[in-house]
Give the backbone structure.
Amino acid sequence: MPGFVSAHLHVSLDGRRVVNYARWAGEEQYEEALRRSDVREHIGQVAVIVEACDPTLVRVRSVHHRHGRQA
C-alpha cells in the first residue's frame, strides 16, 4: 500500500491486550489508506472481535537502540 512502512503487533503476556503500532510515510498516505474500501472492511472485521479500540495518530519523538544509536 503506498506510504505504508511497517507494522508491529505487541500482545500482552496475558493475551488480553494488543498494541498495533503502524508506521506510515506521512499522515496523507495514512488518510488515503483509510478511504479505501478494502482497508475499511479490514477495520470493520477487527472491530467485531475487540472490546475496545483507541486509534491515535502520534509523532515519533525519539528512538533508542541498545547500542546507543539514536534516530
Helices lie at 27-34, 37-49. Residues 10 and 19 are 5 Å apart (CA to CA). The mean pLDDT is 90.
